[in-house]
Amino acid sequence: MSEHGLERRQFGHRARLALPPALAFKADDQAHAARAMWNCLHAWWQMMPKEKRTLANADAVIRQARKDVEFLAVLPAQAAQAVLKTYFQAWKNCWDGRADAPTFKGRFRSVMSVDIPQGRDLQIKRVHRRWGMVSIPKVGRVRFRWTKDLPVGKNADGDNRITGARLVKDALGWHIAFRVQTLEVASEPHQGPEVGIDAGVNLPLALSDGNHHNHGRPPRLPDGTADRDKWLSPQEKAKLLRLEQRAAWRKRHRKPGERASRRLHRTYDQIKQLRAKATRRATDWQHKTTTAIARQYGTVVVEQLTIANMVKSAQGTVEEPGKNVKQKSGLNRSISQEAWGRTIAMLTYKTARQGGTLHKVPAPGTSQRCSACGVTTPGSREDQATFVCKNPDCGFEANADWNAARNILHLYRMGRALIPAAGRAVARRARRVKPATAR
């Protein structure tokens, strides 16, 4: 932060590319080359002695590989250097306990992406109210959707500029994610009120002051089961059902060991596009909702949730079969669809950007305890939506998620906060491998 109350911030902006088929093939080739470069680096790492696993040796290896292997040469030199730096950073994250050890990247399991580390190579220009042009190394000039003002041309300087970008492909096609650096006025401490937030499946976000944030669409079907496609319109749901039936029919008539036909792959691609459209709408709702919360409240309190344990299957084993397996699987799908972890991550950096703070409190008991009398009585949580305190001296009735949100805020006010999570805090994982052994 400077003396004048300014601070340098970095954020990303993602835009859709309008790639013609010929240029899309070039981008695909670069992404496959980047994945192959990663796999070659990983194989080299496992083969070399520990004392020779240095950045200089790895750099010499990839330079020689780009000369000897023809299909690796389609990857720009700067993008290959970015793969190298990302690979070494992955090992550093592993040694620091923040991530697992890097592994080989599969063709169908990994995201197709290419890094453009230098912003000067992009040569961005706005040509229309809705479109801009960007230069992609070894691909060419490509149009992209202009949905946000970017520091380019006369608006760019040493403090406000685009430092790089990354090409990412999903079911909807190729996108470009710009890395933008700006100099903004430092946020003053947020003077807004305190609020506790409970993430649930009946109400996506229940606030302690009663301001609930819903999707605007029924989150569950009339029979109580989870609606997998709640972000799709009725017409899109009907189309998705037809595509799934078509894919099942074509797969059923395929002979054992026979490769999938192009028609089946095309049907799978259409299904992925609809699924990706639903995910994009859900993420858009999360961004808008978390931005509104960060602007309104100065202190946000949430639960410390272990989502991986919450979505474990209840199927059990042959000797000890589980109970209510179907109901638990439906609850697991609902929890996964709400993407609570992504919501908390958005709140973490958005509250810090607005000058607020985000805190986490222990989760056990918040949904069973009465927020009026503070007593935990068995049977008070009647279902996902209803809480009726069974304490004879209380009898408090409220929405179950709202009651939990009030308990979450009460724990913070009692000094039970676990982790002040303002800023991009990273939770360290337990060290499974000693650094000396990993190296």
Describe this structure in words.
With 439 residues, the protein is of the alpha+beta class. The protein contains ten helices and 14 strands. It has helices at 21-47, 55-68, 77-95, 234-252, 262-296, 307-310, 325-338, 340-353, 400-413, 435-438; strands spanning 6-18, 113-116, 125-126, 131-136, 140-145, 161-170, 173-185, 194-199, 205-207, 299-304, 357-362, 386-388, 397-399, 419-420. It has a seven-stranded antiparallel beta sheet with strand order 2-6-7-1-5-4-3. Strands 9-8-10-11-14 form a five-stranded mixed beta sheet, sandwiched between helices. The chain has a two-stranded antiparallel ribbon with strand order 12-13. Strand 4 (131-136) and strand 5 form a beta hairpin. The chain is globular. 23% of the residues are buried. The model is unreliable at 218-226 and 420-439 (pLDDT under 50).
The separation of the N and C termini measures 36 Å
Determine the structural class based on helices, strands and strand pairing: alpha+beta
Assembly form of the protein: single chain
Q: Provide the succession of SSEs.
A: EHHHEEEEEEEEHHEHHHEEEHEH
Number of E-type strands: 14
Return the average pLDDT rounded to an integer.
83
Which term fits the overall shape? globular
* Beta fraction: 15-25%
Instruction: Show unreliable segments.
Output: 218-226, 420-439
What is the makeup of the main sheet?
Answer: 7 strands, antiparallel
Q: Helix count, per DSSP?
A: 10
Order of neighbouring strands in the sheet with most strands: 2-6-7-1-5-4-3
Q: What gyration radius follows from the Cα positions, in whole Å?
A: 25 Å
Proportion of residues in helical segments: 25-40%
